[in-house]
Design goal:
The chain has 11 helices and 20 strands. By secondary structure, the protein is α+β, with helices and mostly antiparallel strands.
């Protein structure tokens, strides 16, 4: 029995981890605070490609409730797993409680809490970034950061409420604005780290850490930090990889999937954030396709206590991968948009997945929450990939009223 902790449904779980659980012969008990959303997301799914799944309401942000719920269900867990940024520490503590393989809860906390991460890397002598924690309203009045600087939630995701500010007036304005909408939210302010934006995708079983690849993200334009395009690098530069891995080692990261964002400043890398889970926005699904490996099964196997194979089951040379997002430019109600699509053309496999539902109303958040959908394309020729992606996007229409 796999116990899977989740908040709202995501493509990583729906298209990646749940089908992988079926291929591994695992029944799934899904603990979530959004049971109806998951039931709607899984309607019509079944057969051999879908696991036997039981959706159980649970206050998953509280590790005590998670442990109590699992114990009360009286179905002995083989693994406790989550791919949610917000639930890594809870899943780690629950796995430890039931004496199962899992991540270190300390590592999960260090990577989730950006202030703690900065302190830990500085204490390890690996990286020093000017940073201050704003745990309570009014503390921004006393900080004297180097400008420009970035203000963001201490435990935020998807670039939500992250903004580059140029001076003290903008700093105070942004803090007031965020706290007016999200009272009590701890913030961090830190020096701006310019440079090309990259990621490193890793997978470990607690003994060996495998580097899966590195994405180069482009089109990110401050003052906000919305991902627009990412290309998988055929071979991540060794010096950068070694520096990232050293930082992961210092934080105790080495079990399961991890997605690390950093900027490259000549030969030096500087970490933006570490997400101790597989990459989202279709990147993990695309990575599995491009590398030709059973990525999601591998991640689940680590939580079952099974060692990873030396070559991860790769089927020859990897393919090129492009991710491109379609982003809202205004808030409102999505009136029309294309549905899911998947086809091959000119040697390119293209997959499109919508992230907003037609009829759904949302505000403009100036973050990755503004993605209307994501295109992922794999192939062997860069020009063909660009042509196929451009042709697909040109033929679609998204209307927000």
């Amino acid at each position: 029995m796999l116990y899977l902790l989740a908040l709202p449904p995501t493509d990583s779980v729906t298209e990646g981890y749940l089908p992988a659980a079926a291929r591994l012969g695992l029944d799934v008990t899904l603990l979530t605070d959004a049971p109806e959303a998951h039931r709607r997301a899984y309607e019509g799914r079944g057969g051999d490609a879908w696991p036997r799944i039981d959706i159980v309401p649970c206050e998953v942000r509280d590790f005590r409730e998670v442990i109590a719920r699992i114990a009360a269900l009286d179905r002995r867990p083989e693994a406790v797993f989550t791919n949610s940024d917000h639930l890594q520490a809870q899943a780690a503590l629950a796995a430890d409680w039931f004496c199962l393989p899992g991540k270190s809860w300390r590592a999960a906390l260090l990577t989730k809490n950006k202030a703690q991460m900065r302190r830990a890397l500085a204490e390890a002598g690996l990286e020093t970034v000017w940073s201050a924690e704003l745990a309570r309203p009014g503390e921004e009045e006393d900080v004297r950061p180097p400008f420009p600087c970035v203000v963001k939630p201490r435990e935020g995701v998807a670039g939500e409420d992250a903004e580059l500010v140029e001076d003290r007036a903008e700093l105070l304005r942004h803090c007031r604005d965020v706290r007016s909408r999200r009272p009590g939210l701890p913030l961090v302010v830190e020096e701006y780290l310019p440079g090309p934006l990259h990621t490193l995708e890793t997978l470990g079983d607690g003994r060996v850490l495998h580097v899966l690849g590195s994405f180069h993200e482009s089109g990110v334009t401050p003052p906000h930090f919305v991902m627009r395009r990412a290309d998988l690098l055929p071979e991540p530069p060794r010096t950068r990889t070694e520096q990232v891995v050293a930082r992961l080692d210092a934080l105790g990261v080495g079990f399961g999937a991890c997605h690390t964002e950093f900027v490259a400043q000549e030969e030096r890398i500087r970490v933006i954030e570490i997400n101790y889970r597989s990459a989202g926005d279709q990147a993990d699904l695309g990575l599995a396709d491009a590398l030709g490996i059973p990525l999601f099964e591998h991640v689940l196997r680590t939580h079952l206590g099974r060692p990873l194979p030396a070559d991860l089951g790769a089927r020859g040379p990897g393919r090129l991968l492009r991710l491109e997002t379609v982003n809202a430019t205004r808030g409102g109600t999505l009136k029309s948009a294309p549905g899911p699509a998947e086809w091959e053309r000119d040697g390119v496999r293209l997959v499109y997945r919508p992230l907003w539902a037609v009829g759904e109303e949302r505000p403009l958040r100036n973050s990755d929450r503004d993605h209307l959908g994501v295109v992922r394309a794999t192939g062997t020729d860069t020009e063909r990939i660009e042509h196929v992606v451009a042709a697909f996007l040109a033929g679609q229409r998204w209307e927000i009223a």
